[in-house]
From TrEMBL:
PANTHER family: NAD(P)-LINKED OXIDOREDUCTASE SUPERFAMILY PROTEIN (PTHR43364:SF4), NADH-SPECIFIC METHYLGLYOXAL REDUCTASE-RELATED (PTHR43364). This is Aldo/keto reductase. Keywords: Oxidoreductase. It comes from the Bacteria. The keyword Acetylation does not apply. Residues 15-308 form the NADP-dependent oxidoreductase domain. Pfam families: Aldo_ket_red.
Length: 339
C-alpha cells in the first residue's frame, strides 16, 4: 500500500483507511475481538496504518479492541483517528455536543479505552449548531499543545463553518483542520456542491464514509440482500439501482469487483481522498484491498458521472454552462475547462 500526506501536514497515512465502526458485537451485529484482530492484522500486513473509530462506536468497544490490539504492537506505526461529540453516556447534560467540557471528558475516556497516551487525529464528529467555533478551536489546540492529540479534523459539518474555522485558526495561530470526513459516494454526491471545493481550497484530505453506500454499490441490494436497511432509504430507489447497474457493468468489463470501481471513483475526483473501508469479516477487507492498483479510464469516469450526476444548484450550475465556465474580462469571454 502507498502512503499519502493527510491534508496540509507531514502525517503519512495509508491510501485506504480501515473503518472500525463494526468492531464489537453490541446491537446484535459486528465482529468479535478475535475477528477484529484478524482484520487489523491483515490490514497492517498490507501496509495499512490508518484506523478510524469514534467514542460511541459499539458503546466504546471499538476503541477498546483497537487499544488492546495496538498495545502489544508498535504504537507509533498506527495512526489512530477517533471522534467526539455524540452522547456516550447519560450522566450529565454535557455528555454530548461540541463544547469544551465534553471534548476534554471524551478525549480522556478515549485515551483510557485506546490504552494510549495520545490520539493521532481527533475529529469533531458532527456539528451541534450550539458551540462557538472559537471555543472548539481553542480546545483542540490546547489538546494538541498538551500532546494528547496530534492533529485536528472535522466531520459532518457545513462547509461555511469549516471555512470560517480554518480561517480563524490561521489568523490566531491555532491548529487547523487537516481532514474532512463526510458521506460521499456515487449515490451521495451532494458534497460536491460546497464541501469538496472548500476542502480542496484549504488542502484538506477527504475521508469519505460509506463510499459503498452501505453496500448498495456492491450490488447486494439488487440481489435482495437488504439486511437492516430501511425500505424508504435512498439506497434502494430506482436512481440507486441505475447507478449500481452501471458500476457492475464497468466492473464486469474490467474483471474486478463492483466495490473496486465504486471505491476507486472516490479517489479520482480531483481531490486528495482516502476512502474509509469498513469490515466485519476478513474476506470483506481482503476483497477491498485488491482495488488499490485499479485506475479508471476517462471513459469509465464519464459513464459513472453520467449515471450519477446531480444538479449542483446555485451558484454551481450558474458557473457551468454546457460544461464550461464563462469568464467575462475586458469585454470578451474565455472558455475554461471545468474539472
Amino acid at each position: 500500500m502507498k502512503y499519502k500526506l493527510l491534508g496540509r501536514s507531514g502525517l503519512k497515512v495509508s491510501e485506504l483507511c480501515l473503518g472500525t465502526m463494526g468492531f464489537g458485537t453490541e446491537s446484535g451485529w459486528g465482529a468479535d475481538k478475535e475477528s477484529s484482530f484478524a482484520i487489523m492484522e491483515a490490514f497492517g500486513n498490507a501496509g495499512g496504518n490508518f484506523l478510524d473509530t469514534a467514542n460511541i462506536y459499539k458503546l466504546g468497544t471499538s476503541e477498546k479492541i483497537i487499544g488492546e490490539f495496538v498495545s502489544s504492537r508498535d504504537r507509533d506505526y498506527w495512526v489512530i483517528a477517533t471522534k467526539y461529540s455524540l452522547k456516550d453516556n447519560t450522566t450529565n447534560p454535557n455528555a454530548s455536543g461540541n463544547n469544551r467540557k465534553n471534548m476534554m471528558r471524551s478525549v480522556e475516556e478515549s485515551l483510557k479505552r485506546l490504552n494510549t497516551d495520545f490520539i493521532d487525529v481527533l475529529y469533531l464528529h458532527i456539528w451541534d449548531d450550539l458551540t462557538p467555533v472559537d471555543e472548539i478551536l481553542r480546545g483542540l489546540d490546547d489538546l494538541i499543545r498538551q500532546g494528547k492529540v496530534n492533529y485536528a479534523a472535522i466531520s459532518d459539518t457545513p462547509a461555511w463553518i469549516v471555512s470560517k474555522a480554518n480561517t480563524l485558526a490561521e489568523l490566531m495561530g491555532w491548529s487547523q483542520f487537516i481532514a474532512l470526513q463526510v458521506e460521499y459516494s456515487l449515490i451521495q454526491r451532494t458534497p460536491e456542491r460546497e464541501l469538496l471545493p472548500m476542502a480542496k481550497h484549504y488542502g484538506m484530505t477527504l475521508t469519505p464514509w460509506a463510499p459503498l453506500a452501505g453496500g448498495a454499490l456492491t450490488g447486494k441490494y439488487l440481489r435482495g440482500d437488504i439486511g437492516r436497511i430501511k425500505p424508504e432509504s435512498n439506497r434502494l430507489n430506482e436512481n440507486s439501482a441505475r447507478i449500481t447497474k452501471e458500476v457492475i457493468a464497468i466492473a464486469d468489463k474490467l474483471n474486478v469487483y463492483p466495490s473496486h470501481v465504486a471505491l476507486q471513483w472516490t479517489r479520482q475526483q480531483g481531490i486528495s481522498s482516502i476512502p474509509i473501508v469498513g469490515a466485519t469479516k476478513l474476506s470483506q477487507l481482503e476483497e477491498n484491498l485488491k482495488m488499490i492498483d485499479l485506475v479508471l479510464s476517462e471513459e469509465d469516469l464519464r459513464r459513472l458521472d453520467e449515471a450519477s450526476k446531480i444538479n449542483l444548484g446555485f451558484p454551481g450550475e450558474f458557473f457551468r454552462e454546457d460544461g464550461v465556465r464563462l469568464n467575462n474580462f475586458g469585454g470578451f469571454y474565455d472558455k475554461i475547462e471545468r474539472r
